[in-house]
Amino acid sequence: MIEILPNKKFTVTLYCLIFSIFLSFGQSSANQNIDSIIYKNTQQNYKETVYSHLNKSIYIKGEEMGFTSYVINKKTKKPSLLTTNLYAVITDKDDTVIKEKLFKVENGIASGSFLLDSLFTTGIYKVKTYTNWMLNFKEQNYFVGTIKVIDSNKPLKNNNIIENDEIDIQFLPESGTFLSNINNTIGIIAKDTLGYGIPNISGEILENNSVIRKFQLNNLGIGRASFTPKKGSFYSAIINFNGKKITKTINTHTKEKGILIKLSKTKKEVFVALATNKNTLSKIKKKNYFLVFQNKGELNKLKIQFQNNTTIIQRINLNDLAYGINIFTLIDEMNNPIAERMFFNYKGLPILNFNQSSIKKVKDSLKVSFKFDNKNNFKNNNISVSILPKETKSYNKNSNIISQTLLTPYLKGVVENGSYYFKNINNQKEYDIDNLLITQGWSSFDWKEVRTENKKQIHQFEKGISIKVNIPNIEKESHYLIHHLSNRNGNILSFQEEVKSFQLYSYFPMDNENLFISKIGKKNKLVEPSLYVQYFPNHIPKLNTSTRKFLIPKNLYNTSEKEIENYYPNFYALNSSNTLDEVIIKTNLKEQRIEKIKNQSMGRVHFLNDFDRNSTLANFIGFKPGIFAYDDFNTGEIVAINRAQNSPIAFFLDGFLVPDKRMLFYYNLYDVEYIDINLRDMSGGLAYGTGGVIRIKTDPLLNVKNKKTVRKLKFPITFSSAKKFYVPKYKNYQNSFYKNYGVIDWLPKNKITEDGILNVVFKNNKQNYVSLFVEGITTDGKFISKEITVDTE
């Protein structure tokens, strides 16, 4: 049993926290219930995806890599409101971890950065972002992006791609099977040795050395053809490549019995044809099959029964299907999958485009404004913007927020240039994505999971850091003070029975922050407790991507060596000197924080020194202008009066109103960081004092320094705060190095106003044209993905 201590004879050190503890304790209990509810809900196959927008793809050693991550509910396609923990990891080509961090997700959004420092050398690296919960699933719900780092101290090797005549071409049947004596549609995909699609290849399909079909692939090396395979016939293809004719065998493995799923569509409907051959019809007549597919996120099941026709056609209105990937699966009476076909529905695709834009100069910066349709809901949204010179070669992405959310997680194979299918959408793009889906074969969806009830998930759904505090010396009654963190109030836990341990939930320690716990000993004095503490999570889990292939954008290989060699050594030296400036700046962070706190106050803020902490609260404030204060030993409470109004003053401790003046009687200041006095503040209310407010802010670190009454416990991992992005400085803003590889700015968090305006402000550095790479999402799941070139003149 856990309850608030009822003893009213506490020392003043404990009294000062009781009220705030009461509120915090209520929140702590609620958090335990919330954690239980969330975990129960996530057991119902809750899934999420993540896309991380990186500010560039090619970096010079010494630069910062900035990113914004979007965690999205896989079912609703809206920002995930459950997730709080996001892991970000950079690995080398051998999957060795170079750097890793934990970030806090709020309303589905997290942002941060990595300094590409001495741990990096010239090479290709992977950037991975994921949650612990994603590790339970086979689909690629996580994000993996590739970047290139160039080290000025290591000579660049010639990484340019060397073309050769090696070609991998595959012929894949429309629903996973070649069925004899019926027309089969096949997807055709041609790749080079590095996995890139070979564009615009033409060829012919031969049956027993006779041409029966011709085909043409698109700029991503993908296309389709159709023919009727026959058992015992030999099929091959002749491809025209680099002026040569190359012959490839088509391994049909034709089956004599089976059922195919064939799709076609109009502007309003999709036609799902279930087709078989005469040899199969007699064996399956009047047997029950079911066509299963999504209908607005819900699973729909249509009964299928073949009678006298070899083809059954189902017409489905596109408005009745969910936008994005729809998976049509034919199953038998035993729920065994027979055939599968993926279909991408562009109808209702929630992509936001702006209606107009404007640009104007604001002092030494440019302000670019974009106007969106204000009929949309912009109450909560986030937009990340990478701003680079127009000629940049350093932004090469294989995906955007739309393809990563709506396409990649549903496929087993690799998608080259996934963003292609969502830029300037037209009939050709819809045709191309359908060809892509045919070449993917079966989806990443595991039909067996549907039939597996109460599947136990190995990796838990995390909400902050949970803490188990083990008590080695068990007592009949014990009381503990959990000191506050930077983003969480402290609380008191009281046990009126023997306990071996207790748990704390949803803690978010920032930037190597520590946990502080005190035991309330005899005569209610604070003493250092003997405890053994366990943390969950206590390390960054590894994302194993060894079973998947990832395509590195081709432009990352083709880097101009001479161009970079002429300039980047100066760039690195320049940024090294700026690192010294940062050290100097960091020494002033304390002064800046003090100044910020003082500026935010409407009263007077007094930061205490060691001399101040030797007095009591009453003595300290009694010497301040306009205040009469003393400790009343008759009543056991503090008296504080506004002299001008002859009215009592209210007190707040760490943000909570102190209801009982006895809590602050003879109150020691050894753990107080500052006291904010505002005699015009009436927020204390009539019941507690209309003579103004005194706000007291404590710091447990001061407690550690001044008295051994607290146990300092180190979190094995903490959350990394999103620091201001460091924009590199360059000697020359007009040379080719800056135009190709320089950074103008990175803005990780921006908001569209409720009336539909997005304002982007940045320093231009005398560029006539700049490129803005924009990614984002609104609270109701509308995507923004745009590349915009701005004429600054």
- CATH topology of the domain at 168-348, anyone? Immunoglobulin-like
The largest sheet is: 6 strands, antiparallel
CATH class assignment of the domain at 168-348: Mainly Beta
Mean pLDDT: 85
Query: How would you sum up the global shape?
Result: elongated
Uncertain stretches: 1-41
The gyration radius over C-alpha positions equals 33 Å
Helix count, DSSP H or I runs of 4 or more residues: 12
Beta content comes to 35-45%
CATH architecture of the domain at 168-348: Sandwich
Number of strands: 46
Alpha-beta content class? alpha+beta
Distance between the termini: 70 Å
Approximate helicity band: 10-25%
Mind telling me the CATH superfamily name of the domain at 168-348? Answer: Immunoglobulins
Protein name: TonB-dependent receptor plug domain-containing protein
